[in-house]
Structure formats: structure tokens, C-alpha cells
Amino acid sequence: MNVAVLGAGAWGTALAAIAGDLGHAVCLWGRNPQQIEMLAESRENTRYLPGRMLGPSVRLTLDVEAAVQGAEVAIMAVPTAAVRAVAVSLRSRLPAGTVVLCAAKGFEQESHLTLDRVLADAIPQAPIALLSGPTFAAEIARGMPAAIVAASGDARAAAAAQVALGSETFRVYTATDVVGVAVGGALKNVIAIAAGCADGLSLGTNARAALITRGLSETARLATRLGGEAATLSGLAGLGDLVLTCTGDLSRNRQVGLALAAGESLGSIEDRLGSVAEGVPTAHAAAALARELGIEMPITQQVAEILAGRQTPRGAVRTLLLREPRPET
User: Fold this and answer.
1) Is 57:26 a contact under the CB 8 Å cutoff?
2) 152, 122 Cβ separation under 8 angstroms
3) What tens-digit pLDDT sequence spans the chain (329 residues)?
4) Does residue 100 lie in a domain region?
5) Is 329 inside any structural domain?
6) Do residues 171 and 212 share a domain?
7) Where residue 101 sits, what CATH number does that domain have?
8) Do 284 and 314 sit in the same domain of this protein?
9) Which one of 77, 106, 188, 228 is separated from 277 by 20 to 30 angstroms, measured CA to CA?
């Protein structure tokens, strides 16, 4: 299979390496000339994924048209904020029938759309599947076992993900609830910031478990309102990804929460991390969407307030605990 991977960050590099190891002809595209030149020479992404070498079947390019030429599958592994622009650039260049797999997770900031809808708008001719689940790129790159879900209304698109990426250590399930998978993948990053804040304040494992559980509840509330299925949130793209991101030390979003609780400014945190923590923009988009739809999402709203500088982590905890008593829903 011919596979194009768009985005040469940690996740894009890991997916390109996986596809290359499976014997596919892979073209990895990135925007940064210095980075792509370094990758082509050293075969190692020393900035984002040190220690993982790219196989000989992976080639590098700065030309997005060259990347997708002849591609049967194109994997979108750019930050959420860049998805529409990259997709629009592909509109007249993507070969007929090429399946687009989206590995980004979040909501578009201006429209608050899920990424499947962004892609459908930008490249309506392409079958689309969302990739989501509990996956840290560094562990995937080392060949450690993991499982994801490919969600699509097009069975061929979901099956293409299994062929392109499925291996004895990387299991790819399929699903049809695109909305549920999209919302679960987006909001887990927001809840992970809250969990990081709680851990940074030394509130204990009881508090972390409560945040994860209530975070899952409000994620399901939004997903079902948008047409998704509650059951999806008990799967890989819901509970699985949420637990990993809220508890794993490799989680950038959890690291953001820990640092906020320690009093570090958001700007300083983002500069230090050197890569996108998708929960930051997602919190603002999800909180705005919840207000538009009249949905109660108190954890998401408090995270958005903290990130905007209008609330402190400790103040957010107090606000959540002082909410009016009610039945668990």
C-alpha cells in the first residue's frame, strides 16, 4: 500500500515508522525544511521521537503534492489548528478514492466542529476515518502493545486503517460512531489538564478518580447531544484514552495541569513543552460549544477559566465542590 503521512511530529513519525515496518511505501511530509533534511539524513526524529529509526521504505518530502501522489491512504497527523488548512491544500491534489485517516484530536476553534466534519467540508470527495485511542507515540515507536479504533461511516475507510497500520503489537479496531470517537478523543485532553491540576495540588487519588469519572460523564453528555452513542465512551476512544491521558507521565496535557497547579504561567509551560498540548485550545472550544447547546460541563468550563487566567486551580476545585447537590447522571 502507498501511504502518505502528513505531519512530522511525534505521532506522525511514529505512524510513518509503523507503516514502513509493515512494508508499505511511505512518504512523510513536514513543513520545516531543517527538520525534514535532518530526518532524511539521520533517519531519526531526534526532537520528537529520539531513538526510533525510520526504515528504508519511508521517504521524506516538503512537497505536499508529492507526498500524496499515488497514495491509497493519507494520514493527517498535524495539530488540530492546522487540519483545515492542510486538507484544503489537498483538495485538488488528492487522488480519487484516497482514504484520509485523521490522527488529530480536538475541535476547530472558530466553528467548534469535530474534525471529521472539518475534513468532510475541506475534502468532500475523500472517505474519512478518525483514529483514536490510548496511545503515547513514544511507546508505540518502541513496539510496545497498544490498540486504537478507526471510526468511519465508510467501512472501506475503516478497513484501510487496519491494513495500513495493524500489526501484532498495534491492534486496530473499527467503529461506526464517528461523533462519539471524535468527542471522546477531544475532551480527554481537557479532563487530563484538570487531573494534572488535582495531582499538582496533592488532592489524592480519590479526587483524581472522581475527576476522571465525572469527566467521562460530561464527555458522554456532549457526545450524545451531538448525535454520538454513550456506549462509545466506555471504549478505547473514551475511557481508554481518558485514563491514559489523565494518569500517564508522558501526557503533555497532564503536565500542563501539574505546572499550572505549581503556579507556572501558561505561556511558560507551552514554551517549555515545545509541542502542542491540544487540551488548551480544546477547552475553550468545548466550553463555548457547551454554552451554545445549554449543556452542563463544569470540569471543562473550569479548565477553560484556569487557562484564560480567570480562575486558579485551587479556586476551580472549590467551585466544583460547592456546586448544588444533585443525582449522579
Assistant:
1) yes
2) no
3) 999 999 999 999 999 999 999 999 999 999 999 999 999 999 999 989 999 999 999 999 999 999 999 999 999 999 999 999 999 999 999 999 999 999 999 999 999 999 999 999 999 999 999 999 999 999 999 999 999 999 999 999 999 999 999 999 999 999 999 999 999 999 999 999 999 999 999 999 999 999 999 999 999 999 999 999 999 999 999 999 999 999 999 999 999 999 999 999 999 999 998 877 999 999 999 999 999 999 999 999 999 999 999 999 999 999 998 888 888 87
4) yes
5) no
6) no
7) 3.40.50.720
8) yes
9) 228
In a domain, 328, yes or no: no
Structural contact between residues 239 and 219, judged by C-beta atoms closer than 8 angstroms: no
**188 catalytically annotated:** yes
Same domain, residue pair 296 and 195: yes
What's the CA gap between 87 and 94, in Å, rounded? 9
Residues 6+ apart with CB under 8 A from 224: 230
End-of-domain residue from the set 122, 156, 176 = 176
Pick the closest to residue 282 from 150, 196, 194, 165 (CA basis).
Answer: 194
| Total domains, the chain | 2
Q: Which of 52, 188, 254, 284 is catalytic?
A: 188
